[in-house]
Amino acid sequence: MWLISLISLYSVFILCVCGGIFKFLNMLDSNVDGSLRLKAISEVAFLVILASLSIVAPSAHPMLSKSDIITVPDDYPTIQEAIDAASPGDTVYVRAGTYFEWVHVAKSLMLIGESANTTIIQSPATNYGYGIVLSANNVTVAGFTIKKYSTGIRLQSSYNSIEENIILLNDDSNIYFYNSKNNTIKNNVMSNATWGLNTYDSFDHNIITGNRISHSNWGICIASSHGNTLRNNSMTNNKYNFGVKGPSLSHYIHDIDTSNTVDGKPIYYWINQQEKTVPNDAGCVYVVNSTDVLVKDLNLTCNRNAVRFVHTDESVIENVYFSENMYSITLAYSDMNIVRDCTITSTYGAISLSAARNNTITNNTISEGAGIRVSGGASNNVTRNTISECSPGILISGSADNNVIDNVMTDSGILFWYSSTQNMINGNVISSTGTHGYGIRIEESGGNIFVDNMLTGDAINFGVYGDSLSHFIQSADASNTVNGKPIYYWVDQKDKQIPSDAGYVAVVNSANITVKNLNLTFNGQGVLFAGSTNSTIENVNVTRNEFGIFLLESHDNVIDKNVVDRNTPRSGQTGLCGGIWIRSSENNVLTKNVITSNYEG
Predict the structure, then answer these.
(1) Which residues contact residue 64 at a Cβ distance below 8 angstroms, ignoring those fewer than 6 apart?
(2) Are strands 327-332 and 349-354 parallel, antiparallel or unpaired?
(3) What is the pLDDT of residues 568-598, one digit of tens each?
(4) Residue 276: how many CB atoms within 10 A of its CB?
(5) Contact at 8 Å (CB) between 376 and 398?
């Protein structure tokens, strides 16, 4: 509109000049020959008409400027040839038609299509390459349909404008930004891609407004960027409509108001707020650097993060229904929050805590997908949740001093990873079936405490894994059971015999222990020796475990007359398993064992 107004003002200016010249000529000496005066007037009128025509050719398209205009296909048959011939500041105007080419803009110019509905740029090879690549700053692309590439438009420069385009059916991204800043993305229609608008690193200070994004895996995803402004964007019928991610607080500082919607419901993106309640019409919730915020009684679906707290403390998420999100609830660097009475289903990650401390996750119902993840941080309480068909049900990764208490879990286990220590696991009821489930699995994590956990099923009920003795130092008493039989997890013992009712046996840093006349099934190890010496495993039936008998740093032991059968990968966590497995151990004697149908040995 502003260009049309400018043209109108210019025309008025020309007419005024013309009128002034007419008046001047009329004031000339009356002795001037009349025919000469008429000739001068005619020449002026011709110049005025010529000037007027020059500013609207080749058409009255509102995006065209006063720069030199190269028209496709009038001047050049392809868009790329026209761009190559253009000078910085020129306009390449493309008439209606379908152009099968890959376009690279390496100079500052305007690339304008006659109409987005009729001016089509399409891949010469379906779902291959980039439709338009911008490697120069200050480029405008407007008025096109761009389709059937790997990526429709790739921006790897800054200060560009992408407006009024239809971008669809691109295999990867409709618009992709790489290290691109200060752009305007306005009034585009995007659909049917993996990513609608996809960013990677340093996507800063952009204005994204009035775009409609639908029927893609991802709508708008902003990654590792800051200072962007979003207005009036509509995201509908995408698998995951909206998401912001990044490792630092600055990556969440954006200006995103409620004019942005997901499936018709507003995004609430709050920064530096206190003592507020999120309205119940919310479609997605981000709370950044805030305290005492209540998120309650909502129904949130189809986002990358339905509720995300970043550096937010002493807040509550209560009675919210989540479905079909990638991550339903995420607490990052957020402390002393409560998540309670929520229902979460069909999600890649139901509740994720990252570097978070002293949070309480209680009385939630979680099913289908992945359950509760605690990564880093410490001293969180995960209590009285009901979790089914999640793998894992609860994951503790690199985190300490957490309490996992009184959870009821079906086909959903508890997994410890990477130096997770001093955690209390108490009173959990876990039932697992099939070849890819587990009850409690501890990997490379020592010093945890297990009390009164009841494990049942024909999967891997209990197992400890690691490559050093410290990974096997656990406190697990006989109140823990496997299919109704107690776990005997002995550390620093000597001169004893494992009772005959054992359901699982671990002998750690011990000597002269006898393991005899047992039937041990459905565990990570039937019998585990770690750092143990001068002990005996005799007449034990170990079957359908991942490892039948496992020795680590254990010496001078006797393994005699055991049946070792069908010990194979069962939990889906490792391909290393088998009948009798001996690592970093010496002078052990194996005699008269029957070893059949194991994955190895």
Answers:
(1) 3, 91, 93, 110, 112
(2) parallel
(3) 886 555 557 889 999 999 999 999 999 999 9
(4) 15
(5) yes
